[in-house]
């Protein structure tokens, strides 16, 4: 609405003067100065859906409250407006708004530690050094045998059973290979069968210019930790061995004694020329030493545990 100065005034912003009889002439009030404010107020009342009434002098206030509740939009990232108090905020009966401090059970604000995250222009950002660290840690597991909690193979993994893994499918495995990440755990691509059997824990390229790698064949194998200076090379396969089993037997006449894994079983008696001779069989049976020596294979106490290899992100 435009301001209407006193009638006859040359100044568009002139003030009104209150007249004093015999002393000061009062300002002449133009009709617009009276009409326009009324029409402005009536228009607000109508916009609020109310009917102007000469008996109600509180309609303007009522209209303003109603318009605020209807016309003001809900706030968004691009538009100001009304907001509703959420889980991370608190408001007192006096209208004081406060932001709660975040906990494991409650939404709220948190203070960046400056190490893993920071704030720039009000925007929370994860520091690149933290991302780089986590990415390097993830890639460090590529090709590393790991125990698994299930017989169902997890995503981006394979069994360590000697299968061929192609670089086209697993580019990060190729990246680790080309960077020398399998140093000391690779056999020649043209290794003969005997060499492969002697190096079950090693990877093997599938060609002189490889398109993939054969995984270590770790299924059904026992692990023995390797360290620098150990007699056997890392990744080599050692045939099963067993402790020495000894026994002793002593015979005399038709009787005898034995110890350890040896036993004597008298089975024949012969009389020739007035002399009696005795014969029998000499038996070697390690089960005589107990249950630990009576199995179908030589093996330490063990548990069958699923084992797989992480291959990185697929192509």
The neighbouring-strand order within the major sheet is 5-14-6
How many helices? 5
Q: What is the N-to-C order of secondary-structure elements (H for helix, E for strand)?
A: HHEEEEHEEEHHEEEEEEE
Percent helix, as a range, is 10-25%
Give a topology summary.
Blueprint: H1 31-47, H2 59-71, E1 89-91, E2 97-99, E3 117-120, E4 123-126, H3 128-139, E5 145-147, E6 157-159, E7 164-166, H4 171-178, H5 193-197, E8 204-205, E9 212-214, E10 247-252, E11 255-260, E12 262-272, E13 275-284, E14 307-310
Antiparallel strand pairs: 1-2, 3-4, 5-14, 6-14, 7-9, 8-9, 10-11, 12-13
Helix pairs in contact: 1-2
Structure description:
With 315 residues, this protein is of the alpha+beta class. The chain has five helices and 14 strands. A three-stranded antiparallel beta sheet has the order 5-14-6, with no helix packed on it. A hairpin with a 2-residue loop joins strand 10 and strand 11. Helix 1 packs across helix 2.
Key attributes of the depicted protein:
single chain, three-stranded antiparallel sheet, 5 helices, rod-shaped
Brief sketch in words of this structure:
The protein has helices at residues 31-47, 59-71, 128-139, 171-178, 193-197, and strands at residues 89-91, 97-99, 117-120, 123-126, 145-147, 157-159, 164-166, 204-205, 212-214, 247-252, 255-260, 262-272, 275-284, 307-310. With 315 residues, the chain is of the alpha+beta class. The chain is rod-shaped, with a radius of gyration of 48 Å.
């Amino acid at each position: 609405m435009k301001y209407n100065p006193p009638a006859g005034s040359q100044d568009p912003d002139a003030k009104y003067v209150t007249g004093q009889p015999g002393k000061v002439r009062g300002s002449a009030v133009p009709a617009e100065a009276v009409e326009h404010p009324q029409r402005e107020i009536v228009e607000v009342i109508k916009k609020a859906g109310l009917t102007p009434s000469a008996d109600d002098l509180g309609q303007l206030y009522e209209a303003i409250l109603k318009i605020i509740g209807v016309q003001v939009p809900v706030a968004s990232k691009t538009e100001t407006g009304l907001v509703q108090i959420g889980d991370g905020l608190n408001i007192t009966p006096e209208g004081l708004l406060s932001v709660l401090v975040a906990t494991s059970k409650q939404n709220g604000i948190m203070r960046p530690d400056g190490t893993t995250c920071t704030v720039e222009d009000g925007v929370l950002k994860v520091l690149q050094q933290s991302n780089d660290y986590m990415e390097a840690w993830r890639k460090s597991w590529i090709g590393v045998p790991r125990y698994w909690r299930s017989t169902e193979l997890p995503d981006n993994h394979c069994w360590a059973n000697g299968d061929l893994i192609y670089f086209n499918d697993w580019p990060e495995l190729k990246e680790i290979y080309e960077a020398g990440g399998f140093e000391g755990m690779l056999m020649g691509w043209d290794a003969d069968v005997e060499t492969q059997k002697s190096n079950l824990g090693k990877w093997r390229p599938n060609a002189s210019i490889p398109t993939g790698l054969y995984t270590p064949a770790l299924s059904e194998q026992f692990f023995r930790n390797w360290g620098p200076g150990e007699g056997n090379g890392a990744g080599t396969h050692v045939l099963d061995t067993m402790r020495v089993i000894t026994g002793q037997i002593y015979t005399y006449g038709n009787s005898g004694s034995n110890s350890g894994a040896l036993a004597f079983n008298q089975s024949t008696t012969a009389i020739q020329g007035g002399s009696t001779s005795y014969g029998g069989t000499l038996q070697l049976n390690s089960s005589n030493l107990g249950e630990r020596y009576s199995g179908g294979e030589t093996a330490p106490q063990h548990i069958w545990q699923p084992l797989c290899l992480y291959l990185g992100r697929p192509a």
